[in-house]
Each structure stands twice: as structure tokens, then as C-alpha cells.
From TrEMBL:
Membrane-crossing residue ranges in chain numbering: 20-39, 59-78
Swiss-Prot/TrEMBL keywords: Membrane, Transmembrane, Transmembrane helix
Domain of life the protein comes from: Bacteria
Protein name according to UniProt: Uncharacterized protein
Amino acid sequence: MKNKLRFDPQKSLIELKVLWLVVGVFISFAIIVALIVGINSQITPDYSYAGFNHALVVFRVPLAILALIIPIVALLAANHRSEQTKEQIRVANEQNSFSNYYKHIEEFEKYLNKTWNSKLHTSSPRKLHKALFPNARYGDFSVPASVWDSFDSMVTRFVEQSTELTACSKPDQNRILVEMQSTVRKFADSLHLTSYAGSSGSGVTYDGVQIIVQDGDIKLFVSQIQKVAHIVNEACSFELAYEPSETLQQVLDIDFTSLPSSKVMQEKVKPELDLSKWLNAA
């Protein structure tokens, strides 16, 4: 019932059911009052000017009720115009948001091509855009907190695994390295990131899963978390108002060049590669 009586901005005034309902109610009320007045009055036919004047006096109340229809219809018309104006503004804003959204995507792709040159670090710039700016369609071009929550969780887990890696015996290295790669890959896949891990080096296998440790150096393997941080930071920097999260900045500030190399499966992992020390110091 409520929907039937609403002021549909897509319809003209005379097509509105609420208009005819109001008019019908007042006409019906005026007719009822006129019948009551007519039944209870001594009325004789008189078609002279005196008769018409007398009729106006007798039926003054029902005529006054009918006269109320005019200002009420005017109010309904004004409200209907207001609804139409709001709808026009809504459509215009929606069209602007739609245009801005696709312009944002277009400029984002240009930015990535310029920043990363020929080597894109994503399998799909548009999917990366959607992951980083999920509310861009509605005019919100900020990176949501969920992205940073996911990044923080990844870093926390990766750091815990690096601590375990530096404390483990050589037979456990493969398992932990595979688990660390899985931790990074899960986050990277959520943003459709690529080219963050080494593509050549020593193969490490555990439970049927094989990963590559670049140049067989665990330091280079561990540093991929900084590579991911750089990729995310560069992509998010497209927005001028962007500020890196505290955790992201800490990862970016780690000086991996000062850390010692540690060959996979040839020795116990160097304790300096326990990232918990460096993140706490960053």
C-alpha cells in the first residue's frame, strides 16, 4: 500500500495514485455533505439568479470542501517536483560516480605501467584495483582497513615462522620454508600480485609442494616479504592521500643488505634472519 501511494519520480503528476486518492476522498466527502444538506433543507427549484445565489449559500460547506482540493493538489505537485529533482540529482551523481570510477581505473593502469615499466607485479591491474579500492564505484577511493588487517596478519605469521626457521634443525627447514611461502602467497593472491618471489634458485619440496629459494639463499627468500610490501606501497601510492600503515613501514625499513646470507639445507639458519628482532627495532 505504501509503495502504491509513493511519489514515483518516473511518473507524471496525473499518473500518481495518491493524487486521485486525495481528490476522490474530498469529492466523496463533499458529495456526502451535500446530500445531508439537501435532505435536511427545504429546497425548491429556482433557476433565476436568486435561486443560484441561494444554492451557493445552502451548499457553501460542500463547495468549500471541493475548493480545498486546489491547494492540496498544489502541495502534492510541489512535493512531486521535489521528488523528481532529488531523482535527477541522484542519477547525475550516479553517472558522475560511474565516470569517475572508470577514469580511476584507467589512470591506475597508466600509473602501474609507468611505475613498474614493462614488468607488472600483478596478474590483473583491474582486479588489483578492485582489491585495493573496493568502494571506488561509490566514490570512495581510500584503501580499506581490511587490506591492512590482512597485511598485518600475514606479516605477523611470517615473522613467527622466521623465528621458528632460525631455531629449527636442518631437517625442518623445508617444511617451514614451504609454510612461509604459503603465508606470503595467500596474501599476494588476494591482491593478484605476482613477481615477488625468486624464479630461479634451489628447489625446496615438502609434502608434495615445491618452492624456489632464490640463489639458494634464505636471506633472499625471507626478503620477499619486503618485496611484497614495496609492491603494495607503490600500488597504493596512486592515491595522493595514502599513508602506509605502521606495519608496512616497518617492513619497508628493514635493511636486508646488512643481513648475512644463509644457504638452504647447508647450515643452520643465521639468527639475524629472525625478523622479530628487526621489526621490533624498526
